Amino acid sequence: MRFEYEWHDESGQWWRSHGNENWEFDENGYMAKRFASINDQPIREENRTLRWDRA
After folding, report:
1. 46: helix, coil or strand?
2. Using an 8 Å Cβ cutoff, are 6 and 48 in contact?
3. Which end of the chain lies in a sparser environment, N or C, as judged by fewer CB atoms within 10 Å?
4. Is 10 a domain residue?
5. Domain assignment present for 52
């Protein structure tokens, strides 16, 4: 899976996290293994591209 999301830390610094994940599930459907490569990039709030608060 390829993903990208944005978030801010307690100081108010915005970050864009993106990368790839590979999941393996057991016979009951529970995640058994998760392999992830995640990159965090600091961004300015005005450079956000993913806004869930838009009307």
Report:
1. helix
2. yes
3. C
4. yes
5. no
